[in-house]
Amino acid sequence: MVHRQSGGRRTQPPCSPVGSPVGEGQAVAPRVQGVLQQGEGPWWQEVGRVLEDCTGSPCWSLDLGGALAGQEAEVVQAVRQARSAAGTEAGPSLVVVRAATGLRDLHDGDVHLLALGEQVEAEHLVAAAVALEHPRRAQLVSLTGSSGGLGVSTLLVRVAAELSRLGWAVAVADLDPGGGLGLLLGDRPLPGLRWADLDPQETVFLPQRLVQALPSWRGVTVLTGDSRGGARGAVAQTVLEALAAVHDVVLLDLPRGQAPPPGCLPLLVTSLDLRNATAAEALSRHLPAAAARRLRLVVRQGGLDLDVAELEGMTGGALLGVLGYDRRVASRQQRGEDPTRCRGAAGRDAARLARSLLALLEAEPDTEREP
């Protein structure tokens, strides 16, 4: 049975680095209802305190009765019934139990069952609450080149600008350790945080607060590196989760050989010459199975060793678009100018690719949006 608990003494959450949602005494997940396994002692006190700091309201108490391993669905159903009986407004519930019960984590729609060990990790609880408060809404799309010189980064910012123009909320994340994407966005550095400004040990970011601190370019949220370096460590996944909560599409500039994040639609930019086709085949073979099934090819004109059907057979990917070569784009980049403001074939190709991408995303939504 689930019971409401009265509020106890509130404590100030622990301070944490810039970008963290904890440390300002405000609830970071006010829509979430905290539910805690019934019990007494330091473990329950600590978990209850963190949950109440996150949600801004008292936890409910959960009497597990004889619930054992394998009965996670029954626990989730009991929480839903109690919520319905109490007449509470619709909202997600974070249900915390001790791992010693044998119960395991389960995410079932608007109820997340979280089994914690004897050591209470406040950051883990905060991350779970924020993920429920800000569920992922964005499609993740990665762009990778089969070799250098194919203009992947330039294509990425062009597609991002076109998607933004079409009314989509777009973010761009440069996952290259060198972090040079910002050099393509004009002759002056954009104001805002870079990868090096984010604490690599941070486990959760409030989406809106992070976005407000990042550069904005033509309506696109941008996170890239600078002379201090680019993306590093596990914080990249934490950042992507925050960006995905408040955008429609997140475009990733993905280095060759790096696996795309779960649920990501991979775009492989290549050419029909044998060298690039062979490199594309090797990259496709190292993709996780789920990503390999969704692989799409963007072919840069220039090589005639193979045809598109042969390239599709080598990589297992399907053609999404074809790009021409525009010398004016390269000239603008060499002068340090914004390559997206160059009109011509490159702009038309990027616009067509953006529309093809949108049609694909609408017809084939990813299945991994729930945390």
UniProtKB/TrEMBL annotation:
Pfam families: MeaB. Residues 1-25 are annotated as: Disordered. It comes from the Bacteria. This is Cobalamin biosynthesis protein CobQ. It comes from Actinomyces weissii. The lineage of its organism: Bacteria, Bacillati, Actinomycetota, Actinomycetes, Actinomycetales.
